[in-house]
């Protein structure tokens, strides 16, 4: 579904990505792991056309969409839950969800079934929600585009433990329903409970990739590339 090959990107004169390679298949959950500042978010932003690539390719279902405008990436089937959530603060919960809605299996009623708290708060403005509720709304908003691949950048950063558990349960449910997911998060232990493959990025390069079994059986990967 998504194939990233040799992806390169820079901010001005500072080169950030030096040839990122990975793929996500239909129904697969893949993680991007690495310490802060190693290029994970830049990888996502470059895939979505928010940062101009300086090399490499991004293909969705075989179509070369390298450097395409964000709306074309979304139209090709990728839905983004961005770092910092970026919900619309002066729209209600329901208006946030309806703003991105397209026809498909994900409807308001299904989002409210996934996140009952959002139904309770559906008339509240975005800026009246807690951080956890905003993250639920950001996920719901992405799902309302009915994507074939959901991309989450820092899925549980800054959330209380109980809310984090709710988000992980949500992602596990999405996987059980056949959704493809690409996720960035620091909680390797939580990710290994439902992810299929893991891609470790260090200084703008992929330095390790493998299955959940592989990463559980290779503790030196976490020691070398993930621990602060």
Model description:
There is one protein chain. This protein starts with a strand and ends with a helix. The longest helix has 16 residues. Helix content is 35%, strand content 28%. It has 228 residues and is α/β, with parallel strands linked by helices. The chain is built from ten helices and ten strands. A six-stranded mixed beta sheet has the order 6-7-8-3-9-10, with helices on both faces. Strands 2-1-4-5 form a four-stranded antiparallel beta sheet, with helices on one face. Helix 3 runs parallel beside helix 6.
Category by helix and strand content: alpha/beta
Shape: globular
| First and last CA, distance | 33 Å
> Which sheet architecture does the biggest sheet show?
6 strands, mixed
- Quickly count the helices: 10
SSE string, helices as H and strands as E: EEEHEEHEHHHHEHEHEEHH
Approximate strand percentage? 25-35%
Residues in helix, %:
25-40%
Radius of gyration: 17 Å
What strand order characterises the main sheet? 6-7-8-3-9-10
Uncertain runs are none
Task: Please give the number of β-strands.
Answer: 10
- The mean pLDDT is 94
């Amino acid at each position: 579904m998504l194939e990233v090959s040799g992806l390169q990107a820079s901010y001005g004169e500072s080169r950030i990505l030096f040839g990122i390679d990975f793929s996500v298949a239909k129904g697969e959950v893949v993680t991007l792991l690495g310490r802060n500042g190693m290029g994970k978010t830049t990888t996502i932003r470059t895939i979505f056309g928010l940062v101009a690539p300086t090399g490499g390719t991004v293909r969705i279902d075989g179509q070369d969409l390298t450097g395409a405008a964000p709306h074309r990436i979304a139209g090709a089937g990728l839905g983004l839950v961005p770092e910092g959530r970026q919900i619309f603060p002066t729209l209600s919960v329901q208006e946030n969800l309806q703003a991105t809605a397209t026809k498909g299996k994900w409807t308001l009623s299904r989002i409210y079934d996934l996140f009952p708290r959002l139904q309770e708060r559906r008339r509240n403005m975005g800026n009246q929600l807690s951080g956890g509720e905003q993250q639920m709304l950001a996920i719901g908003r992405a799902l309302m585009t009915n994507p074939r691949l959901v991309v989450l950048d820092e899925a549980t950063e800054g959330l209380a433990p109980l809310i984090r558990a709710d988000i992980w349960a949500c992602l596990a449910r999405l996987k059980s329903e056949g959704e493809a997911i690409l996720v960035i998060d620091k909680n390797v232990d939580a990710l290994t409970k439902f992810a299929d493959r893991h891609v470790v990025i260090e200084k703008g390069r992929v330095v390790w990739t493998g299955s959940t079994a592989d990463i559980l059986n290779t503790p030196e990967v976490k020691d070398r590339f993930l621990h602060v």
